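Please decode residue identities from the backbone states below.
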């Protein structure tokens, strides 16, 4: 008996996913076109759609629990119930697992298949099989949301839009099309699709990962490269290698994060094609060897050996970026011991422009962040591309984790804790302006932020112009020239062209001034109009991908224009209700008006 074919698929899935609109989604009402069916007729398509919907009830109906196995997730939460017959029918991996067969060379011990009657045992009582995700996917991580989305696909043959709070980060200025949570979700689904042998999903997410590579930061490409190496995705792997070879990612990061053969290949490419920006750095072999010895001592948690190595040579902790290394890779105890030596510069930037606090923020370890801050690390120090440690944390944190409310006595989410620690420190010690932030890389990042902020402020002006005008006046956004604002009535989603004769330094200062003013405007809106701000969040999430088509009332057929008019009316009603909530107990506008009577410089100083 041959293993079953992997899937019912939908023809438009891969092209839709590859356009960057969602890490895991299909256009609504996509027609089914099952592999091997030669293009289903209308009757066949309707039958398949009904079958898909009926099978989905097994997952959604709480009163219909006929599952016969559980999958324990690494997060320690409740197990995910599954139906072995459906998994076995859809996935060759689960087909072999349920039959109780093991192919030579798999090297996979599945305790559930042995102790739980993985081959045909009954599902009652203690005989109900329980599978552990870390055994099903060894050496990889498939999170709860990714596995739930994967099983939904197996049951229904359809991919739905990914939950927004799972693929969006906690940074309100991020467009969320290529932020780390979106990448992690796609990576986890790729691990699941490859391990459980669903080739159509592998193809879909291969295109999605390829789309991420050139849109995100170099350090965020690393998990894509890792999954490409593990899942033998040669096209994705080659693109990641070339991307990282062109980046400023240091050799230490390559050695720590990547398979040895891949790290070596990247180094060889760099030797053949040195960077264009300035003279290539020629390393001193003896110097590099001493630094590696210090790093190995830190890996062994042996700070005493570090002291001996420092005494034996003229290498300093700063030369080795030892505090940076410890903040990124070592236990918090090692970081504390290094700080007690008082030989490392707390706010020293490495070659990539990161301080040890920036690296601790990337790691999202509260104990290390608090220790660095207690010793004098500056939370307001910016990276070369204009990010704060708190910004880094927010970009790495899923919106779902940030918004999760903890019950009394429940352990707090570490990611949110890091953000709160850093932002409290920022409030205690206001930002120090750094004149050195003039990297041309900053312009690209600001263009994305400005597109979002201009859209948001334009929407605010469209729905409540008087209040938005006051907020913009306080933030001085009304006196700083726009760089391509988009009106809510005619949104293009693009910024105006910039002056080609403008130097990168002047351009960055201009873009930064506008972004700061717009950010202050948004912050004022969140402070005084929290409910309205939530409605704006929702409008932006739902309409940015289609270029705010709902506001283009004159476009489309008469029927489409009618639908748009109705939708715009619904949006206005949502805003009206939110505004009523905001103004029910206090006169917000009067507060803003009284604040606006202060001179803008004084307001800025108070901030």
């Amino acid at each position: 008996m041959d293993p079953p074919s992997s899937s019912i698929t939908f023809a438009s899935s891969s092209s839709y996913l590859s356009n960057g609109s969602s890490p895991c989604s299909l256009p609504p009402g996509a027609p089914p076109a099952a592999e091997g069916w030669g293009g289903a007729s209308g009757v066949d398509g309707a039958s398949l759609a009904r079958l898909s919907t009926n099978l989905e009830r097994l997952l959604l109906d709480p009163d219909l629990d006929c599952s016969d196995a559980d999958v324990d997730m690494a997060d320690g939460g409740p197990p995910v119930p599954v139906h072995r017959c459906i998994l076995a029918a859809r996935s060759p991996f689960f087909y072999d697992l349920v039959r109780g067969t093991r192919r030579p060379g798999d090297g996979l011990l599945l305790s559930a298949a042995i102790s739980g009657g993985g081959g045909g045992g009954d599902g009652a009582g203690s005989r109900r099989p329980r599978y552990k995700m870390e055994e099903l996917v060894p050496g990889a991580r498939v999170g709860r949301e990714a596995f739930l989305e994967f099983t939904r696909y197996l049951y229904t043959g359809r991919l739905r839009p990914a939950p927004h709070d799972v693929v969006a980060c906690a940074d309100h200025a991020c467009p969320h099309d290529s932020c780390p949570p979106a990448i992690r979700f796609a990576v986890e689904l790729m691990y699941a699709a490859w391990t459980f042998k669903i080739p159509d999903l592998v193809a879909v997410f291969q295109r999605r990962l390829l789309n991420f590579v050139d849109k995100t930061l170099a350090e965020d490409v690393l998990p894509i490269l890792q999954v490409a190496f593990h899942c033998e995705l040669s096209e994705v792997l080659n693109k990641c290698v070339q991307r990282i070879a062109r980046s400023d990612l240091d050799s230490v990061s390559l050695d720590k994060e990547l398979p040895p053969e891949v790290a070596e290949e990247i180094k060889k490419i760099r030797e053949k094609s040195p960077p264009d920006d300035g003279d290539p750095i020629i390393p001193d072999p003896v110097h590099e060897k001493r630094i590696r010895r210090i790093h190995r001592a830190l890996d062994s948690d042996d700070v005493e050996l570090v002291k001996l190595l420092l005494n034996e040579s003229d290498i300093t902790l700063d030369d080795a970026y030892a505090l940076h290394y410890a903040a990124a890779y070592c236990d918090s105890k090692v970081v504390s011991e290094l700080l007690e030596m008082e030989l490392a510069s707390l706010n020293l930037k490495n070659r990539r422009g990161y301080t040890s606090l920036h690296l601790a923020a990337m790691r999202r370890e509260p104990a290390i962040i608090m220790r660095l801050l207690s010793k004098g690390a500056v939370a307001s120090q910016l990276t070369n591309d204009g990010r704060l440690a708190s910004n880094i944390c927010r970009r790495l944190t899923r919106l779902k984790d940030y918004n999760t409310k903890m019950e009394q006595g429940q352990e707090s989410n570490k990611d949110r804790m890091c953000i709160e620690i850093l932002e409290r420190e920022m409030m205690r010690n206001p930002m120090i302006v750094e004149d050195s932030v003039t990297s041309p890389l900053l312009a690209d990042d600001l263009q994305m932020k400005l597109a979002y902020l201009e859209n948001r402020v334009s929407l605010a002006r469209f729905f409540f112009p008087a209040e938005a005008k006051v907020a913009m006046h306080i933030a001085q956004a009304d006196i700083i020239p726009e760089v391509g604002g988009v009106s809510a009535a005619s949104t293009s989603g693009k910024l105006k062209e910039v002056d080609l004769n403008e130097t990168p330094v002047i351009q960055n200062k201009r873009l930064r001034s506008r972004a700061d003013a717009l950010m202050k405007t948004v912050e004022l809106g969140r402070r005084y109009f929290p409910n309205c701000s939530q409605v704006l969040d929702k409008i932006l999430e739902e309409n940015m991908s289609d270029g705010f088509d709902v506001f283009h009332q004159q476009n489309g057929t008469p029927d489409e224009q009618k639908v748009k008019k109705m939708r715009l009316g619904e949006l206005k009603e949502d805003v009206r209700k939110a505004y009523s909530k905001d103004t029910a107990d206090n006169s917000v506008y009067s507060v803003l008006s009284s604040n606006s009577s202060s001179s803008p410089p004084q307001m800025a100083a108070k901030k």
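Observation: The CA atoms of residues 449 and 515 lie 7 Å apart.
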